[in-house]
Amino acid sequence: MERIVVVDTETTGLSVRNKGRVIEIGAVAVENGQIVAELATLINTNTAISYGAYRVHGISEQMLAGKPTPQEVWPWLLEFVGTSPLVAHNASFDSAFVQHELRLLGLSLANPWHCTVRLSRRKLPRLMNHKLETVYRHLFGVVPEDLQQHRALDDARMAARVWMELGGELVR
Questions:
Q1: Domain containing residue 78: CATH number
Q2: Is 67 part of a structural domain of the chain?
Q3: CA-based, 20 to 30 A from 100: which of 42, 51, 93, 140?
Q4: Domain presence at residue 59
Q5: Closest by CA position to 86, among listed 166, 6, 9
Q6: What pLDDT, in 10s, does the model give residues 105-128?
Q7: pLDDT per residue over 59-110, tens digit each?
Q8: Bridge partner list, 83
């Protein structure tokens, strides 16, 4: 199995059209069914965090003080990802934000994106919803207590396990 990178973002809002920015990135590299490397950081964008976004992830503007800037983080992510296919839970959301951040810096990423929401809808059509926690709980019985849901690295880890358990295949 080739290397894939599972990505999750936490943002200041719900849309790049409303000037939303990525304030946390989590990524895990998976090879042969094992997580072999991880990347995670908060990102100081000097952008206000909407109350709705804060309620989801709990990241405050104070937590971002002194953290790496987008100019430091995004080249690091590109190096980590390389040419690997990308996977995310609700890939359209994460890919829109990642591509927006890269465009702001004059960078680009042409890697294909794959979606665990779409995969879970196809493989588990009778679930009441296809939220990451719901799918994970269905597949593994319980979400580990030490896991921080709606934080980028832990959500990327969960999505990676979901992808592997559902036999995520890369369609070319």
A1: 3.30.420.10
A2: yes
A3: 51
A4: yes
A5: 6
A6: 999 999 999 999 999 999 999 999
A7: 999 999 999 999 999 999 999 999 999 999 999 999 999 999 999 999 999 9
A8: none
Question: Is 171 part of any domain?
Answer: no
pLDDT at 150 over 90: no
- What pLDDT shows up at residue 1? 58
What is the spatial distance between Cα 103 and Cα 82, in angstroms, rounded to a whole number?
17
Number of residues assigned to the chain: 172
> In total, how many domains does the chain have?
1
For residue 155, give its domain range: 4-165
DSSP bridge pairs for 65: none
- Asked if the structure places residue 172 within a domain, the reply is no
Radius of gyration over every alpha carbon of the chain, rounded to an integer in angstroms: 15
Query: 150 an active-site residue?
Result: yes
Taking 70 as the threshold, does the pLDDT of residue 171 lie above it? no
The catalytic residue among 89, 114, 130, 150 is 150
In three-state form (DSSP H/G/I as H, E/B as E, the rest C), the secondary structure along 117-156 is HHHHHHHCCCCCCCCHHHHHHHHHCCCCCCCCCCCHHHHH
